Amino acid sequence: MSAIPVPPASAPDPGSDAEGLFSALSPFPHDHAAQMALLAAVVESSDDAIISTTLEGQILSWNAGATRLFGYTAAEAIGQPISLIIPAELVQREAEILTRLRSGAHIEHFETERVRKDGERLQISLTVSPIRDSRGVIIGASKIARDIGELRRGEQLRAQLAAIVESSDDAIVGKNLDGIVQSWNASAVRIFGYEPHEAIGRHITFIIPPELRSEEDEIIAQLRAGRRIDHFDTVRVSKSGRRVNVSLSISPIRDGRGRVVGAAKIARDVTQRKRMEAALRDSEQALRLVDQRKDAFLAQLAHELRNFLAPISYALQIARNRELPPAQQERAHEIIGRQVRHMGCLLDDLKELTRIKRNALQLNLASAELTTILGSAIEAARPKLDEKHHVLSLDLPERAVRVHVDAVRLVQVFANLLINAAKYTDPGGHIRLSARCEQGELRVAVRDNGIGIAPDMLPRVFALFGQAPEALTRSEGGLGIGLALVKGVVELHGGRVEASSEGPGKGSEFRVCLPLDAEAGAPGAGGSSHESVIGLRVLVVDADEAAAGEAAMFVTLAGHHARTVAGTAEASQQIESFRPHVCMVDLAAGTAAYQLARDIHAASWGRHCVLIGMGAAADPVERERAQAAGFAACIDKPVTAASLEALLTGHGGQLRERIAQL
Q1: What contacts 442, CB < 8 A, 6 or more positions away?
Q2: Quick one: which H or E segment has residue 149?
Q3: Which of 119, 257, 507, 587 is 20 to 30 A off residue 52, Cα-Cα?
């Protein structure tokens, strides 16, 4: 390394050690004084600190840059050890550098710390070069120190800004004024799905929907004009094609002269916010709708109560008129009693709904047979079914199914579903009641061909006040709380209720799904002290077609095969081909009924046929006559599901013995 002549910043006194050293160091002849002066001027005017020291570390020269950087004047520094500006913990390193210089080792420039006169620590980049005499002997060191604190602070700031950009939850994208992407942070990858190498260099429109491309042109035009762009909500498209709702902020990027050369875009994914806003709007709308329905419900309730009170008031006036015949007064009392019962049922429904809402409704769970529950429900719904002349068909399990439930509540559930179907089906409609045991569940469905349910109504059909407008016009005086009760009672049993419809005018189906446990749910399982007989052929003989159909319905519900005939004459014609296990005969036919019984028992196949008389249970004389004619039992008319089940289970052993002999 060549020697570096470094004259002192200010000439030392004649005879000083510094003057002697510089005389020895200078390789230039004295006739080159002008060149030396030029070099001295260069050193003195440098922005960097240029310092020379002896190999022992004594400062020999100190330029103006050193004064600016370290705060010491040349007079204060020259002659002092270089440790004047070196932190105590780095003095040993300085000694090592000087030792390496003496041995001729090369010193690479490096970054280190120095201390100003005021104690402030400086980050500097340091270059150390040897100073040689005319013989090439290293006799000192030249040091050039540059303040890199501002540079380091700038680098730190840039690193911090880069870290902020990279760790931001928002997509931060830089682009030039031609719309070409220049930078793409991690959140841009997360939100839009493109990796940086897939995005940088492409036009920003690759994430903008086609219908919003003009939006980008407007942004660029405003940036070029130097106008501010307020943040706004818009839509962008991810790599997968998913549309992303974003809130977009745009800031201009300027060069060193303040010119706009690009734009920084900050896109925040506001999809969740948009969903919440939509959900809030839907909730507000739903609350308004519920409020409207509540008002309509209260108005309907007031109307219903007036409907009850009007006939009661009229009947009271009749009952108070002593001059009217007793029969008419009795009729008035019947009207009052009926209206009071209807009002009581309404209030009971409201009370039970309140209990369900408060989780205060108690269930009385016990083992019960499904057909008995469904039969009682049909009994309760029969007036409405008959009033509308609907056809009710059944599709039930061939074997008995016992369930552990609150039978009274479930009768209420299925009766409500049947009545609901009857109300919203035009006269002469078809209603189907079916039951299946599948996947550990009892599934009972009521299907009708009525007015159907619009798709937007299906999710809230079981909600209180949830009747659709067209349903309200068909409610026939109901309050629309039946389905809410159904849902509440079924869920208390650990089940669920579902509704489906193909749309208005296409009917609807309501399904009740209840869990079956291993004991109660098994077909034919116990729970009764009597053995139930299933699958019998039952002939119902009654001139009253409606009564015969009713009895046959309950026979079918009990799991048997029923056939009805209009009277004893028709029965005589069909009995040989049908060969019933049980024959239910209306005893109002008198002598003909008893003759039919004798004919059946006289036949070889009919010796074991069980005869049941209908209509004589309350008449001891008629009951004795029936027993004498071979009737095994008598029941009252109209036949009910409960009376029929009690009869069949009570005679189960006898029936089974007789069937075994057929």
Answers
A1: 370, 401, 403, 435, 436, 513, 514, 515, 516, 521
A2: helix 149-167
A3: 119
